[in-house]
C-alpha cells in the first residue's frame, strides 16, 4: 500500500504541534490528543510505515527500537506498576491513523480483554 500523508507526518515535519516527549533519529513520541489513560503516549517511526500489515524483514531493527523506546519512556514516566502497549492494525484492529504507532497506556488499571 502506498503511504498517504497522515496527521502524524505533519507532526514529524512540525507542520502541526504535538506534545513531544521523546525524539531520536528513528522515531518520535508524543502525548495522544484524546488520552484513554492518565499516561497515553504514541510512539511512531519517522519512516512512513502504514501499518504492521505492511512491514517486512527490513523493518526488524526499527520495530525492535520502537519497543525499546516504549520501555524507556515507561521507565521515565514511572510506570512501575505496569502499562499496556497497543498496536492497532487495519479496520478490524481499530486503526484510525495509517502511520504505524504504538500506544503506551498507563497510570490506571486496564481491563482485559479489550472491546
Ligand atoms: P489508532 O486508532 O490506533 O489509529 O490511534 C490513533 C490515535 O491517534 C488516537 O488515539 C487519536 O487520539 C490519536 N491522534 C489523532 N490525531 C492526533 C494528534 N494530532 N495528536 C495526537 N494524537 C492524535
Distinctive features:
20% helix, alpha+beta, 115 residues, HIT family, subunit A, binds adenosine monophosphate
Shape: globular
What Rg is obtained from the alpha carbons, in whole angstroms? 14 Å
Report the biggest beta sheet as strand number plus sense, adding barrel if it closes. 5 strands, antiparallel
Domains counted in the coordinates: how many?
Answer: 1
Structure description:
- This protein is an alpha+beta fold.
- The protein has one domain (7-106): HIT-like (HIT family, subunit A).
- 20% of the residues lie in helices and 22% in strands.
- It has 2 helices and 5 strands, in the order αβββαββ.
- It has helices at 7-12, 60-76; strands at residues 20-23, 27-31, 39-45, 83-86, 102-106.
- Strands 1-2-3-5-4 form a 5-stranded antiparallel sheet, with helices on one face.
- A hairpin with a 7-residue loop joins β2 and β3.
- The two termini are 27 Å apart.
- The mean pLDDT is 96.
What does the secondary structure layout of this molecule look like, with pairings?
Elements: H1 7-12, E1 20-23, E2 27-31, E3 39-45, H2 60-76, E4 83-86, E5 102-106
Adenosine monophosphate (AMP) binds next to loops.
